[in-house]
Amino acid sequence: MTIQQARTLTRSAFFLLFLLAPLLDIFRFDLTLGHFILFGQAWTLDISDILAGDSVDAAIRIFTRMLLPLIAFIAITMLLIWKYGRIYCGWLCPHFSVVEMFNTLMLKQLNRVTVWEKPFKPSQGIYPKIIVALPSILMAFVWAVGLLSYLLPPKPLLNDLIQANLSFGATLFISVATLIFSFDFIFTRHVFCKYGCALGLFQSLIWMANKRAMVIKFDRQRAKICRSCSANTPDKPCDAACPMRLPTRNMKRAKFTCTQCGQCIAACSKVQQHNPQGSLLHWVSGEQAVEVDRPANIIATKEIK
Ligand code: SF4
Ligand code: SF4
């Protein structure tokens, strides 16, 4: 299995989990009951019951039920981000899956990855725009209903939706959320990942603090090869493949929002498939990763443009 196939598997599984978790009672907050549901069980501290008993027992129960799982989750998550960067974004995040999905669709229909870039050739007529807009709005609607099912009992909600019998509040939520997500998916999807997502920013900051963390490294010794490397787009294949629109061969700080998706490596591996030395881009960590943020790397990238 290739890296990209593995990533398709993890992203698809997580996307399904994101949509189906409330329906299967895996995780949701039930507004009507006022507590979380976790794996079919009410997840509540039940403070009154705890406080009525022995105080040592109460402290132990609060620590083991709430604090310990929370501390363990935060510690493991931070360690993974420290070592591997934004792997949640590249390998799991449902929003990043949408980014990649609509990048591909837009490139195919409108000859550009985002509306903010120039098409490498003009698209013909209105149909390519409709083919991009309709799935984006449909996906936005699915997200809106999916998010509401985290707050309201999912089965009655879906029932009401099918019978066109939604309450005013649910209709308003779904309409507004569909509008916002449609705008995001069509116009600002990768911009949101870069600048709007607190979870993404949090991961980037931890990752940047570790100079030895896993990062994409460009093989500067073989940089001349890039001069003859071309694609059907104005960008080099590695840069054209980057869902976050980053300068993939540049130093680490220029790739602050890298999601470790490996698309740039896959693109270069394809271009260099007949080269015994293979791709010029690799994942490295430790001492080699420190090299990636040396200013000399930025000069090398300019030279090979
Ligand atoms: S630089 Fe490479 S690994 Fe990072 S987001 Fe872009 S394509 Fe993915
Ligand atoms: S795809 Fe590989 S060879 Fe082509 S420009 Fe990018 S790094 Fe250089």
Q: What is the molecular shape? A: flat
Give, in spatial order, the strands making up the sheet with the most strands: 1-2-3
Total E-strand runs? 5
Strand content: 5-15%
Average residue-wise pLDDT: 90
Structural class: mainly alpha
Chemical compounds bound to the protein? iron/sulfur cluster
Residues in helices, as a percent range: 55-70%
- The separation of the N and C termini measures 33 Å
SS element count, helices = 13
**Radius of gyration, whole Å:** 23 Å
Unreliable spans are: none
The total domain count is 2
Task: Detail the topology: elements first, then pairings.
Layout: H1 3-20, E1 27-30, E2 35-38, E3 41-43, H2 47-52, H3 55-84, H4 87-91, H5 94-110, H6 127-148, H7 154-162, H8 168-196, H9 198-209, E4 215-218, H10 237-241, H11 263-271, E5 281-284, H12 287-292, H13 296-303
Antiparallel strand pairs: 1-2, 2-3, 4-5
Helix pairs in contact: 3-9, 5-6, 5-8, 6-8
The structure holds iron/sulfur cluster (2 copies).
